[in-house]
Automatic annotation (TrEMBL):
Parts of the chain that traverse the membrane: 7-32, 44-62, 69-90, 139-159
UniProt entry keywords in alphabetical sequence: Cell inner membrane, Cell membrane, Chaperone, Disulfide bond, Electron transport, Membrane, Oxidoreductase, Redox-active center, Transmembrane, Transmembrane helix, Transport
Species this chain originates from: Uliginosibacterium aquaticum
Protein function: Required for disulfide bond formation in some periplasmic proteins. Acts by oxidizing the DsbA protein.
Record InterPro entries: DiS_bond_form_DsbB/BdbC, Disulphide_bond_form_DsbB, DsbB, DsbB-like_sf
Localization per Swiss-Prot or TrEMBL: Cell inner membrane; Cell membrane
Name listed for the protein in its UniProt record: Disulfide bond formation protein B
Cytoplasmic-facing ranges: 1-10, 161-169
Membrane topology category: Multi-pass membrane protein
Family: Belongs to the DsbB family.
Superkingdom per UniProt: Bacteria
Disulfide bonds, paired cysteine numbers: C37-C40
Length: 169
């Protein structure tokens, strides 16, 4: 049996979830003493991308191919953010032998061409390998869990059959 979930409801939920995560991250940073490393900032950008695409999808409210395009873009952003989370978790579980605090993201992006800055970001720094647990998981593990949730909802939006798809097969 087909149950219709309005497009705006699903995309609104993705937007609200990602915006809430960004807000919570800012609260942890400014009031909880958790300073973000370059990889954490990249994960925030991925959540912002998911939220922005979901907001555009809510405003546009496009059925059919439009819905699938927005869902694909959200899933791609969430998967990109999840890959950064996985890399950070690997760094946290296997920290480098020498811990050196590297430059922050703004310095890297302003001082180096983009092609040189990205590899430096993903190498991680001493900050990126620091694992501060929050409610039993590190922030990177929480981010991976949330990216997975967002990607699954977006992939469900991408794959689900709607009335316009049922007519054509």
């Amino acid at each position: 049996m087909y149950t219709r979930y309005p497009l705006r409801l699903v995309f609104s939920a993705i937007f609200a979830w990602c915006a809430g995560l960004i807000g919570f991250g800012l609260i942890l940073q400014h009031f909880g003493g958790y300073e973000p490393c370059p990889m954490c900032i990249m994960q925030r950008y991925a959540f912002v991308a998911c939220a922005a695409i979901a907001l555009i999808a809510v405003i546009h409210n496009a059925p059919g191919a439009g819905r699938r395009l927005y869902a694909f873009l959200i899933a791609a952003s969430a998967i990109a953010g999840a890959s950064v989370s996985v890399r950070q978790i690997m760094l946290q579980r296997n920290p480098p032998a020498e811990t050196v605090c590297g430059p922050d993201l703004a310095y890297l992006l302003n001082s180096f061409p983009l092609g040189d800055a990205f590899p430096m970001i993903f190498q991680g720094t001493g900050d990126c390998s620091k694992a501060d647990p929050f409610l039993g998981l590190t922030i990177a593990e929480w981010a991976l869990l949330n990216f997975t949730l967002v990607a699954l909802v977006a992939l469900w939006q991408l794959a689900r059959r709607t009335p316009e798809r049922r007519r054509f097969g």
